[in-house]
């Protein structure tokens, strides 16, 4: 079509509007929603190039919420190429040992004792370097690779946790599970097999799911969560309160813990903090609470004062390789707050409240409160 980008956009917009007008069919009003990708041709373009780029723009329109049009720009092309490359390379990434599992300590805030750790994955891509799970987990979900990848991560985390659980206060490993994994055939049997093969006790495993797990099929998700609970495996709602889903769902969920999102933790000292409300909801539901993203002692003290016992964050340690976690466990308590502070008391500050690098535990704050041989089991209710 002989036109320019503005006129093409105008036509695309009109098309979307026309398609949206309800049609009456078999006594029902039916409306179609569309997404449109535009690519302005220049001299020398091949039809293949035009179609490919229009497709990329179409994908961008769908990702941006559908029922809209997007015009191709070269940056879109780079992003799409990266996506496609990552998607294709994911298939063999675990086998090629490019994906590693790091572990972030989960700490009893008052005593600084290590209670457990969360397994968090990293991908070192040969071309793009470190790729965050925030980018590649959704791609693994789209291709279905998450099912085998998630299982490999689970197995490795459980194998390591067996050793750690044999030492003093460490009592569980927390592993993130994607909704796609939870919904896949044979998920429960696969978890059973991992526990059997590694020798980890069900009570030493905690699986984290996000609220998104409930969106597709609430009843099926509840059945799987209940089946996990029946086995003695604990479950947590990750990023609690960020999923925009109704609170009424929480009442019917067989979960043991909620994890407070970092965004809420950062605001815990403000007057409008929602954490007191989350603590109340958790108490009513009879579930435990773990705060994420504790970056300084002030946040830890404020959380403890509100009754939140457990937390994780850069104050204690970034996610580290398995060998470093073993070292952290052997060092003993980290950045204990001590008894909850009275409102007038100044907060004790730890020397390292800056974001540590994701390396070893060399710059970890050492124990501030309890002797190294104090066990969490002696302290926890
Ligand atoms: P999440 O499960 O909510 O994990 C917490 C994220 O916060 C992690 O990011 C962690 O590195 C980061 N974090 C921890 N402490 C602090 C802190 O004090 N400050 C700040 N700014 N950040 C902190 P990460 O490792 O990039 O993981 C992001 C998300 O990717 C995870 O969020 C989880 O949803 C997903 N993910 C990670 N590993 C896996 C996995 O093995 N399977 C699945 N399905 N998802 C995973
Ligand atoms: Mg998590
Ligand atoms: Mg989270």
Defining key terms:
381 residues, alpha/beta, eight-stranded mixed β-barrel, two-stranded antiparallel sheet, 15 helices, 13 strands, disordered C terminus, binds ligand C2E, binds magnesium ion
Verbal overview:
It is built from 15 helices and 13 strands. α3 crosses α4 (133-143). The strands form three sheets. It has an eight-stranded mixed beta barrel with strand order 5-6-8-9-10-11-12-13, surrounded by five helices. Residues 340-355 and 359-381 have low confidence and may be disordered. 42% of the residues lie in helices and 17% in strands. The longest helix is centred in the first third of the chain and has 20 residues, at 74-93. It has 381 residues and is an alpha/beta fold. The chain starts with a helix and ends with a helix. One magnesium ion binds at residues 118, 176, 208, 238.
- Give the fraction of residues assigned to helices: 40-55%
- Uncertain parts: 340-355, 359-381
Average of the residue pLDDT scores: 87
Straight-line distance between termini:
73 Å
Class by alpha and beta content: alpha/beta
Number of E-state strands: 13
Number of helices: 15
Helix and strand run: HEEEHEHEEEHHEHHEHHEHEHHEHEHH
As a whole number of angstroms, the C-alpha radius of gyration is: 25 Å
Strand content: 15-25%
Bound molecule kinds, no repeats: ligand C2E, magnesium ion
Q: Summarize the main sheet.
A: 8 strands, mixed, barrel
For the largest sheet, list the strands in their spatial order: 5-6-8-9-10-11-12-13
User: What's the overall geometry?
Assistant: globular
């Amino acid at each position: 079509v002989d036109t320019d980008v503005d006129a093409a956009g105008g036509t695309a917009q009109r098309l979307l509007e026309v398609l949206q007008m309800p049609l009456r069919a078999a006594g029902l009003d039916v409306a179609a929603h569309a997404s449109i990708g535009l690519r302005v041709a220049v001299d020398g373009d091949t039809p293949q190039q035009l179609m490919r780029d229009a497709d990329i723009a179409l994908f961008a329109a769908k990702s941006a919420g559908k029922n809209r049009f997007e015009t191709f720009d070269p940056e879109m092309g780079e992003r799409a190429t990266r996506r496609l490359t990552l998607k294709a390379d994911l298939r063999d990434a675990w086998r090629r040992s490019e994906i590693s599992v790091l572990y972030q300590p989960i700490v009893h805030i008052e005593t600084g004792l290590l209670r457990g750790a969360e397994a968090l994955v990293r991908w070192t891509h040969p071309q793009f370097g470190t790729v965050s799970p925030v980018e590649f987990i959704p791609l693994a979900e789209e291709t279905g690779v998450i099912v085998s990848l998630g299982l490999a991560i689970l197995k490795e985390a459980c194998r390591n946790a067996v050793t750690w659980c044999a030492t003093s206060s460490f009592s569980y490993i927390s592993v993130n599970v994607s909704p796609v994994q939870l919904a896949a055939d044979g998920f429960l049997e696969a978890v059973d097999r991992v526990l059997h093969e590694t020798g980890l006790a069900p009570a030493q495993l905690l699986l984290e799911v996000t609220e998104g797990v409930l969106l597709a099929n609430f009843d099926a998700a509840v059945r799987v969560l209940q089946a996990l609970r029946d086995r003695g495996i604990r479950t947590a709602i990750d990023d609690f309160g960020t999923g925009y889903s109704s609170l009424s769902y929480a009442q019917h969920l067989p979960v043991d813990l909620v994890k407070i999102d970092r965004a809420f933790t950062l605001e815990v000292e403000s007057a409008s903090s929602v954490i007191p409300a989350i603590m109340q909801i958790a108490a009513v539901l009879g579930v435990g609470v773990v705060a994420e993203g504790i970056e300084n002692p002030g946040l830890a003290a404020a959380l403890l004062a509100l009754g939140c016992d457990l937390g994780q964050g850069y104050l204690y340690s970034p996610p580290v390789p398995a060998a470093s976690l073993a070292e952290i466990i052997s060092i003993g308590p980290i950045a204990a707050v001590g008894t909850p502070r009275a409102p007038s008391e100044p907060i004790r500050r730890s020397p390292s409240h800056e974001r540590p690098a994701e390396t070893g535990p060399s710059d970890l704050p050492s124990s501030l409160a309890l002797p190294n041989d104090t066990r969490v089991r002696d302290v926890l209710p």
